[in-house]
Specification:
The complex is a heterodimer of chains A (63) and B (469). With 63 residues, chain A is mainly alpha-helical. Chain A has 2 helices and no strands. In chain A, helix 1 crosses helix 2. Chain B is 38% helix and 14% strand. The longest helix of chain B has 24 residues. In chain B, a hairpin with a 5-residue loop joins strand 10 and strand 11. Chain B has 15 helices and 13 strands. Chain B has 2 domains: 390 residues, Amidase signature (AS) enzymes (Alpha-Beta Complex); 45 residues, no CATH class. In chain B, the strands form 2 sheets. Chain B has an 11-stranded mixed β-sheet with strand order 1-3-2-4-6-5-12-13-9-7-8, sandwiched between helices. Chain B has a two-stranded antiparallel ribbon with strand order 10-11. Classes of the chains: A mainly alpha (63), B alpha/beta (469). The interface between A and B is medium-sized, with 29 and 27 residues.
Chain lengths: 63, 469
């Protein structure tokens, strides 16, 4: 399962995507991102041939 | 009957026979807007004087013996995502403050070329990114949402503030408000009606289509927006009520899960009525339904974030909180999630294409329950599951967006709460005429020629609708 996004991880991700996220917004975005990513990831389980995406959250962002 | 209560086909016929003036018709509609819209809040921009001027011109043309076009003198509203040159496209957002469109959307040009008068712009959920249109009340009960995102358009048509309106639909945004406001809504086949000049939400999923009070009117509007190809093609004929040979798919999965009992019962009765009209009911397991919602979110969030990539970085405070959160989330989703969703979309398209070799249409509910209260965020189902209002309204509709297949909602009845609901037909690619025929049969069976909503502020204690199914 995709690990939960933390506020710190979300802040780092936002910086790398040039997205301004004030501190008070970090938890809300982190929670939503976790929920949405886990929901999308269920698509993997529906296709048994698909083997992508149980990556750790820290390893799938690019600078 | 006052002119604003007429359907397009009725008004157009009277105008052509010179028994109704476009000036009378526009005046009646504008009077109705003045009487009611302060309570409902459907309009973001009313073009009263322009509409009156155009009505006078339309009247002069008739008196001069000019050919009468299909929508001559008919007042129509536009969802405020649709550009009209010289006017703001507000998208019901502060982000658009100061915006003025430089060109006019293709759909508007088509309507105007058919003689329609643009009466104003209607509120949308901000940038179409929501299912409730907070600025607008449901004309059947102002304490409830009209749905969204084309809530302003649906509300205006439902109370008589326009004879028809245009909406857009990315995850149900024509069909949901149409069903919740008791009017007809058509999401055409993907690509069949031009989106040129329409502010996008998600390019893979966006559609534009008409919201009307009758099925016949929806057919007329569709004929103007997407003229039938080839000589002799039946344009707006919905009168053939013999459904012999038509295979109507009745889903045994997904579409009747977590569904209000009254709506379920009415739909089952409608299925029988279609069978009485000659249709063959075919029980069918709809494939890959478990992929619909994750695909929808996996595509919509990043595509919307791409549309707003500059403003979400430069002026994020100008967005409403709900839209801002979705755009921020979409901005941080990895490409692999998007591609996974696109892959699932492709599979769904193939699977549903094969499904429509075995049936001609699916009959499904448009909404699982009637309009939520305006301050309501969730529904609690009898099995204890708590579901967000947004997800409840999107789940029965997103399949048609993902596959690009046409879908039409028609009023199916009045809930015991006093709020309307709809039944939806989904068909194979470019099967809009068949969907319109089916919807016409429903309209005949239910006698649900939409009576106008009479908005009034009801005391919350008097309302039968608790908001929970």
């Amino acid at each position: 399962m995709i690990p939960a996004y933390t506020p710190d991880l979300t802040a780092d991700l936002a910086r790398r995507n040039a997205l301004r996220l004030p501190e008070e917004r970090l938890k809300g975005v982190a929670d939503t991102l976790t929920h949405v990513r886990r929901f999308i990831a269920t698509l993997q389980t529906i296709d048994p041939e698909q083997s992508v995406l149980t990556k750790e959250t820290s390893s799938d962002e690019t600078a | 009957m006052k002119p604003h209560e007429l359907s397009i086909s009725e008004a157009a016929s009277l105008i052509a026979k010179r028994e109704l003036s476009p000036v009378e018709l526009v005046s009646s509609v504008l009077d109705r807007v003045q009487e009611v819209d302060e309570k409902v809040g459907a309009y973001s921009l009313l073009l009263a004087e322009q509409a009156r001027d155009e009505a006078r011109q339309a009247e002069r043309k008739i008196m001069a013996g000019d050919p009468v076009r299909a929508l001559h003198g008919i007042p129509i509203a536009l969802k405020d995502l649709i550009d009209v040159a010289g006017l703001p496209t507000s998208a019901s957002s502060r982000v658009q403050d100061g915006h003025v469109a430089r060109t006019t959307a293709s759909v508007v040009i088509k309507l105007q070329n058919a003689g329609a008068l643009i009466i104003g712009k209607t509120h949308t959920h901000e940038f179409a990114f929501g299912l409730t249109t907070p600025q607008t009340g449901n004309p059947w009960n102002l304490e409830h949402t009209p749905g969204g995102s084309s809530g302003g358009s649906a509300a205006a048509v439902a109370y008589g503030g326009a004879l028809a309106a245009l909406g857009t639909d990315t995850g149900g945004s024509i069909r949901v408000p149409a069903a919740l406001c008791g009017v007809v809504g058509l999401k055409p086949t993907s690509g069949r009606v031009s989106l040129d000049g329409v502010f996008p939400l998600a390019a893979s999923l966006d559609h534009i289509g008409p919201i009307t009070r009758t099925v016949r009117d929806a057919a007329l509007m569709f004929e103007v927006l997407a003229p039938a190809e080839g000589a002799g093609t039946a344009g707006a004929d919905t009168s053939n009520d013999d459904l012999s040979g038509l295979r109507v798919g009745v889903p045994v999965n997904f579409f009747h899960d977590r569904l209000d009992a009254e709506i379920d019962l009415v739909l089952r009765d409608l299925q029988k009525s279609l069978a009485d009209a000659g249709a063959e009911l075919v029980e069918i397991t709809v494939p890959l339904t478990e992929t619909i919602m994750p695909s929808q979110w996996g595509i919509m969030l990043p595509e919307a974030a791409f549309v707003h990539r500059e403003n979400i970085r430069v002026r994020p405070d100008s967005f409403g909180e709900d839209v801002r959160l979705l755009l921020e989330t979409g901005s941080l989703l990895p490409a692999s999630d998007y591609l996974l969703a696109k892959q699932a979309q492709a599979r769904l398209r193939c699977a549903w294409s094969r499904m429509f070799e075995r049936i001609d249409t699916l009959i499904v509910p448009t909404v699982p329950t009637v309009a939520a209260r305006r301050d309501q965020d969730t529904f609690t189902w009898p099995d204890g599951v708590v579901e967000s209002v947004v997800e409840a309204y999107v789940r029965l509709n997103a399949g048609a967006n993902l596959t690009g297949l046409p879908a039409l909602t028609v009023p199916a009845g009045m809930h015991s709460s006093g709020l309307p609901f709809g039944v939806q037909f989904i068909g194979s690619s470019r099967s809009e005429q068949m969907l319109l025929r089916l919807a016409q049969v429903v309209e005949t069976v239910t006698g649900a020629r939409c009576r106008l909503a009479e908005p009034e502020l009801k005391n919350a204690l008097d309302s039968k609708c608790t908001g929970d199914p």
